[in-house]
Design brief:
Layout: H1 2-5, H2 25-32, E1 36-39, H3 51-60, E2 64-67, H4 71-86, E3 91-92, H5 104-110, E4 116-122, H6 125-135, H7 140-149, H8 158-161, H9 164-177, E5 187-189, H10 197-205, E6 210-219, E7 222-231, E8 246-252, E9 258-262, H11 268-283
Parallel strand pairs: 1-2, 2-3, 5-7
Antiparallel strand pairs: 4-6, 4-8, 6-7, 8-9
Length: 284
């Protein structure tokens, strides 16, 4: 005010220039000057979008891409992997199957030239929790509500119940570890929605509990894969996998049986997988 009285104008407060919102992920990556993209959108089993477009944009702009989304592996793995190599960047996805357990990096880094004949396992924790609840006497809806309450099942659990989530994981393992470009519709898929509580409890009393079992085996020149409820004898390690635990049992030319088990992981396990991929991307 004193400056105005003396004939001087007061300096105006500087304003930051207005920035328009980025029109798409490609422009956002440019503005952010990103080195690494963490992609964690929800799974779209049928087309892998929008995650594929996000990862493609990152790699084309020279940005490492790390994802927890299985869709891009099933629908665009070969393209995205080639794009990463061409641009000297990493496309990593350890959190897509069994949270942060190092399945893909195990075969890539520690088991070179190993020939994978096939695998089987339990890879969907939501259905495992639901089946366990039904064995205890809960109805299907009550067991599903429990799975949602503990944060395992989505509000719309159809991808899990109908076997889509497990089928996508099977296809991802087949494409990356077995080198076979299997289509998702080639994975024979049956969910747990038709199982009654009576059938599930009867199977348990017979010591042959129901599990949603994932399988893939080479049947030259192709790979045969499936996801379906099966009764598993107690002599099989798969029968003892309960709650949010997972297991995958590999059959290779060198190791007839190689099993990886994850025992009731916490919610931070997936985040750890992405962190581990970040360390690989920026240090290797």
């Amino acid at each position: 005010m004193e400056a105005l009285k003396n004939g001087f104008s007061a300096p105006s407060r500087a304003r930051a220039p207005a920035l328009d919102s980025p029109r798409d992920v490609r422009e956002w990556l440019r503005l952010a000057k990103a080195d690494v993209l963490f992609e964690a959108t929800s799974l779209s089993p049928r087309d892998g979008q929008p995650a594929i477009d996000h990862i493609r944009a990152a790699l084309e702009l020279g940005v490492h891409a790390i994802t927890a989304n299985k869709g891009p592996i099933v629908h665009a793995y070969e393209e995205l992997n080639s794009l990463a190599s061409a641009n000297g960047r990493r496309f990593l996805f350890e959190s897509t199957v069994m949270d942060g357990v190092p399945i893909f990096s195990l075969f890539r880094d520690s088991l070179p030239v190993l020939y994978l004949r096939g695998f089987r396992g339990i890879l969907n924790s939501t259905t495992n929790v639901i089946l366990g609840g039904m064995e205890e006497g809960l109805s299907f809806d009550e067991a599903l509500a429990r799975a949602q309450h503990i944060g395992v099942a989505e509000t719309d659990p159809s991808n899990d119940i109908e076997g889509w989530d497990a089928a996508v994981k099977v296809a991802a393992l087949v494409r990356v570890l077995m080198g076979a470009p299997i289509r998702l519709d080639a994975v024979q898929r049956e969910g747990i929605g038709e199982l009654s509580g009576e059938a599930v409890r009867a199977a348990r009393s017979e010591n042959r509990p129901y599990k949603l079992v994932c399988r893939a085996y080479r049947t030259n020149p192709t790979v045969t894969a499936s996801v379906r409820p099966e009764q598993v004898p107690l002599s099989d390690p798969l029968a003892w996998v309960a709650g949010t635990s997972s297991i995958v049992y590999f059959e290779t030319d060198i190791f007839p049986g190689l099993a990886i088990t994850e025992n009731n992981p916490g919610l931070d396990a997936t985040a750890y997988g992405m962190l581990a991929d970040f360390v690989r991307a920026v240090t290797e």
